[in-house]
Amino acid sequence: MTTVIPTSPSTGTTVDLGPAVALSCRECGNRVALGPFYACTECFGPLEVAYEFTTSGEALREQIEAGPQNIWRYAPLLPVPANIADTPNINPGSTKLVRADNLARELGMKTLWVKDDSGNPTHSFKDRVVAVALAAARELGFTVLACPSTGNLANAVAAAAARAGIRSVVFVPSNLEQQKILTTAAYGGTLIAVEGNYDDINRLAGEIAGEQEDWAFVNVNVRPYYAEGSKTLGYEVAEQLGWRLPQQVVVPIASGAQLVKIDKGFQELVSLGLVDEAPYKVFGAQATGCNPVSTAFKQGHDFIQPVRPDTIAKSLAIGNPADGPYVLDVVNRTGGAIEDVTDEEVIEGIKLLARTEGIFAETAGGVTVATLKKLLASGQLDPNEETVIFNTGDGLKTLDAIAHVVGPSATIAPTLSAFEATGLA
Amino acid sequence: MTTVIPTSPSTGTTVDLGPAVALSCRECGNRVALGPFYACTECFGPLEVAYEFTTSGEALREQIEAGPQNIWRYAPLLPVPANIADTPNINPGSTKLVRADNLARELGMKTLWVKDDSGNPTHSFKDRVVAVALAAARELGFTVLACPSTGNLANAVAAAAARAGIRSVVFVPSNLEQQKILTTAAYGGTLIAVEGNYDDINRLAGEIAGEQEDWAFVNVNVRPYYAEGSKTLGYEVAEQLGWRLPQQVVVPIASGAQLVKIDKGFQELVSLGLVDEAPYKVFGAQATGCNPVSTAFKQGHDFIQPVRPDTIAKSLAIGNPADGPYVLDVVNRTGGAIEDVTDEEVIEGIKLLARTEGIFAETAGGVTVATLKKLLASGQLDPNEETVIFNTGDGLKTLDAIAHVVGPSATIAPTLSAFEATGLA
């Protein structure tokens, strides 16, 4: 993360982002007014949204339960205008919390759930964060939605902007798989293929953000709002369990923001009286080919040593994760742990989840399932405590990862005798 | 459809399929007991499920509204046991009804909705019909879930069986696109690649159904139950509109069962007092490369002349649609129409829906959008009446169809000056 404060469009009006009242520095606590800022002017630390919630307890719960079947039921807890559900949105969220008895049985666990976020409109959790970023961007006066991305985020931004009726500009590596290019290009926004790796593209996006004052780069200049979208994963899990917290959660780590925000969501529900306070442990999952947070956890560090990613779990391949230190805080505070798994284990994880629960996850989901298995084997995760794992994307988008390990059981001529000869009857 | 009555497993117990009381012939009305039958023993006509509903009006509405957010909220109206929601299921349904104001504006329409069934667990409406077929198959004593398929159905069967903890056997053409093979194979069931076209595979499936008495072929020997799953599309649209019927619907036609069952769902809601009786028109959509029902409609026939399909809309490419005559009945009775569109129009339809509403449809959805446009142009569909179109699948599964028409706006070096030189800033 750079510390440049980008220019911002002058709105000339009061910003209405619901219960959000300021941005506050996660390091020094310094507060600034709501705006397109992401770094503290005092200490260069990252900013996050600060709230003054006006409702709590039973009244809030009733308000949420009467809301729409998407993330806007939690609008009173998000940096969005109160009427957000009435604006054109792709309305992510309210994805399934699947009771995973078959998988639990195979792993010797008592109660296991899969929060399956592949059910979102563009089939990843990115729809949540983009929806919140879009709401804030509109309120802050931006007219273009942009991002650097290698996949899921590109899809989510292009789709959300199309429905909102605003322009999108998405930057992707020119060597990206054809299927990811097509899936983003279909929405008809501006798609720029860049001859470089993700770091090159991210740097270019930062430069353009400084030049184009009407452009909201969702994960750059409106990042504090964007990141809050992941709180809704925590809210939904708690509500779907009947307004209580699970005892253990396993969350994949890319930038780390998702894990941190799920914890933040749980904490808010406790402080607002929506769930009873109860101990829970947060576990993190990485691929061994990009395991800077897992390494720091195991070595007892409170800082992250960047790595150069080399894993099939491309949606988790952030070598210098911005929220890494905060992930360590959450995991250590709650008594969880962080593990990493090989690409072979990732593939086995994808297959295991698909075979037992009929959920076909992208590689990030394979990382999470494989990490769950490893944490059970090491005794760090308790098989008898209620556990929720997060599947954040769809296997349809990472077919290449399994192309060499799955296929037809047999290929036959179209006759009954040919079928019977296979021995598969 | 053949008229062979396959063997069936002997259950030895009473079959509990909720409000379903018999199978009745759609031609002669002859009734037979609930079982794995699909053809009338008197006249060889197709069988369908007959019900005795025990609840209606306000009581039924309250029961539905208190139910789960999936098709099982309509269990009192389906051929499934009352406790179906408690059994392991992939729980399809409750997909979004999207208010399509942007698309309506482009087409000069007043009120347009898209029922977006790509939000189902395996991203097509097939999850609905398979879920009902699975419920009936289990109750009838079958132990294996099977199907011939070229895509969406294969995914749905493999996923549903995995979660139910039973074996699946899926037959696909060996020349199917690699991505469709992988997506089905991921779930770990038996996948048989057959050297032949869909007709060859369908015939083989019928032969195997006669041999394997424990196998339920969802679209063969338990087809009457399977087809009922599409009624839930009609129920959901009416409930999502606030318990009323739309004035016009546009539905894609493959076998035609979906269109017929949406109408059946509407009719049931009227007769049960859940919606007010009101006139509505049902329109059908086909690809010109497989337009036997559209042709029959235009020629004023009440029978279907089979065709050899040649279209990119493969999920609609059924040259001899079993429900074709019933589609004609519904469309003529309600005052609707049937149109067909070229592959070029299909692609334009996909792009139009994605660009305006952020919904990336498979080719079948492109057929529906393009047909809507054509029906408006010809004056057959009224732009001022409230209209619902059905998107039944996901663009991620038919990427090949758009590969030659969408792509990056520009490819650049990773520098600010290279970006500015594109003129896209």
UniProtKB/TrEMBL annotation, chains A, B:
Signal peptide: none
Modified residues (N6-(pyridoxal phosphate)lysine): 126
GO molecular function: L-serine ammonia-lyase activity; threonine deaminase activity; threonine synthase activity
Listed cofactors: pyridoxal 5'-phosphate
Pfam families the record matches: PALP
InterPro entries cross-referenced by the UniProt entry: Ser/Thr_Dehydratase, Thr_synthase-like, TrpB-like_PALP, TrpB-like_PALP_sf
Residue ranges annotated for the Tryptophan synthase beta chain-like PALP domain, each copy included: 93-393
Keywords recorded for this protein, A-Z: Lyase, Pyridoxal phosphate
Documented EC number(s): 4.2.3.1
BP GO terms, sorted: isoleucine biosynthetic process; L-serine catabolic process; L-threonine catabolic process; threonine biosynthetic process
UniProt cross-references to NCBIfam families, sorted A to Z: thrC (TIGR00260)
Family: Belongs to the threonine synthase family.
Protein name: Threonine synthase
Species assigned in the record: Nakamurella panacisegetis
